[in-house]
Amino acid sequence: MYTIKVTTTGPEVLFDITGQIVKLIHSNNIESGAVLIYCPHTTAGLTINEGADPDVCHDILAHLQIMVPNSAYFHHVEGNSDAHIKASLLGSSVLVIVKHGQLQLGTWQRIFLGEFDGPRTRTLWVSFLS
Length: 130
Ligand code: ZN
What we know:
Blueprint lengths: L1 E6 L5 E4 L1 H10 L5 E6 L5 E7 L3 H14 L13 H10 L2 E7 L2 E2 L5 E7 L5 E9 L1
Antiparallel strand pairs: 1-8, 2-7, 3-5, 3-8, 4-7, 5-6
The chain binds zinc ion.
The site of zinc ion has 4 residues, from loops.
């Protein structure tokens, strides 16, 4: 298992980690199989979506804020239940096929860490499956 560190840049961001995963594939000479990326945090998650137009990430974050506003009726005393819920909506892992040393993503797809309680330095666990 490998780890990568991601320092997010704001309270809520979709941070593109695709380049870091590609570097790990190349530095380990991975030719084929799959890569599992796992986020061991409760207020951050992982997703795959469009990376070509940054407005897509903006709109995803804006809509998550509308869907899950921070509310006084939450019980969790830390006060960040909205961040926990958004992380659950994204999920904790993504699995991507690797073929001929390349991530098999669609033309417009990128892999994003969804930060919902930042900025922070996050650790991701990466495992290559053959
Ligand atoms: Zn909390």
